[in-house]
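dude i think i finally got it to work??
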Amino acid sequence: MQKIVPFLWFDGNAEEAVNFYVSIFKNSRVVSVTRYGDAGPGVKGTVMSCTFQLEGQDFYALNGGPQFKFTQAISLFVNCETQQEVDALWTKLSAAGREDQCGWLQDKYGLSWQIIPTALGKMLGDKDPKKANAAMKAMLRMKKLDINALQQAHDRG
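look at this
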C-alpha cells in the first residue's frame, strides 16, 4: 500500500472523472467504488468514493459536494519522454478544459496538470547558464511544450 495518496474532491462527478483519467493513462485502473448507503450523507446508491491508479500511482476520489474546488496551487506533474506523448496527453486532458502557460493545463473537472518533457529538466539544469536561460525563455512563451523548439533555443543559448 502506498503511504501517501493524493485525495481529490469532486462535486458529484468523481466516477466520471476517474473513468476519464483511467482511459487516458496506460497501466491504470479503477480499484474500487464505494456507494452511499442508508446512512448517507449522499443519496443511497450514488458514488461516495473511488480508488484508482494512474501509471501505478494510487489516488482517492470523493464526491464531497460543492464546498471545495481545485486550484492551480496543486497540480499533477506528468513526465513525458516524447513529443508524441506530450501531444496526446495535452489533447486529451485539455479537451473542454483550459490551456495554460509553460506546459500547464486544467482539465474539464478543474484539476491542473503539468505535461512536461523530461528533456526540459536537463536543459534547465545545464551547467551553461546561457543555454539554461535560453530554454527557460522559450518555455515561458509556450503553452503546450515543444521539445524541438526548446532544444533549438537551448542549443543556440
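The chain has a mean pLDDT of 97.
im so relieved honestly
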